[in-house]
Structure to design on (133 residues):
């Protein structure tokens, strides 16, 4: 388990450090150890990155890769923006074939907080999807 956490940390660091120009598909081994056996099964992983488009970004997985909806982690890569603005994500849908992400721009004004959809092409959405054990 400790190895998986280190591996996933490395993926997250690499995901936020490099621009991904194509979908990366791989696997990590899950070890299940009982008193009499040790079983190793692959857990599939997808890393992808897309510029945000109005209406949401849909990440599509290879056919048959995930038997169930994967565990998903999303991060954003933004340029400079005013200190009274921040971006947040919402996973609109998650299935075994795709995940759709919407990005919101949260602004603080004198009259309160305003939440709107992020402008087109304003951020890069990074996705890490891991098969559920």
């Amino acid at each position: 388990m400790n190895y998986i956490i280190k591996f996933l940390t490395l993926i997250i660091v690499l995901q936020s450090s490099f621009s991904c120009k194509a979908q990366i598909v791989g696997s990590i081994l899950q070890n299940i150890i009982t008193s009499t056996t040790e079983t190793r099964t692959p857990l599939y992983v997808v890393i992808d990155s897309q510029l945000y488009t109005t209406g949401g970004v849909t990440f599509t997985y290879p056919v048959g890769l995930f038997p169930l909806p994967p565990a998903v982690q999303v991060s954003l890569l933004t340029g400079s923006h005013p200190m009274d603005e921040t971006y947040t994500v919402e996973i609109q849908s998650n299935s075994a074939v795709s995940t759709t992400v919407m990005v919101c721009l949260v602004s603080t004004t004198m009259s309160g907080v305003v939440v709107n959809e992020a402008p087109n092409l304003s951020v890069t959405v990074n996705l890490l999807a891991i098969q559920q054990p």
